[in-house]
Amino acid sequence: VRWMMYWIVFALFMTTETFTDLLISWLPFYYEVKMAFVIWLLSPYTRGASLLYRRFVHPTLARREKDIDAFLVRARERGYETALSFGKRGLNLAATAAVQAATK
Question: 30-42 and 2-24 helices cross at what angle (nearest 10)?
């Protein structure tokens, strides 16, 4: 569970940092602070990732649980429909290629 919390918080940090890096990377000691933050997240003594996960990430996910579940259901349905569509197209292409090969 500890590692799950770390990787979720780290992924959110990296996503945020990707967009903000260009704006704040010119600050003095930016990279040192960034490294210290990652060590703080990772350290078993400070348990920074657990603290941030329990204080911010988990409540946000809990509040939006119904929306997330609805999105996953819609994504599953769309995935099924897309797989059927590609399957039908593939069968049509294979049938067309077989008919063309047989007529030649």
Answer: 170
pLDDT per residue as tens digits for the range 19-74 = 888 888 888 999 999 999 999 999 989 889 999 999 999 999 999 999 999 999 99
DSSP output for 11-31: HHHHHHHHHHHHHHTTSTTHH
The pTM of this model reads 0.67
Q: Which residue, 65, 56, 44, 45, is CA-closest to 9? A: 56
Angstrom distance (rounded) from CA 38 to CA 52? 12
CA 13 – CA 41 distance, rounded (Å): 10
The DSSP code sequence of 23-63 is HHTTSTTHHHHHHHHHHHHH-TTT-HHHHHIIIIIHHHHHH
- The C-alpha atoms of residue 94 and residue 89 are separated, in whole angstroms, by 8
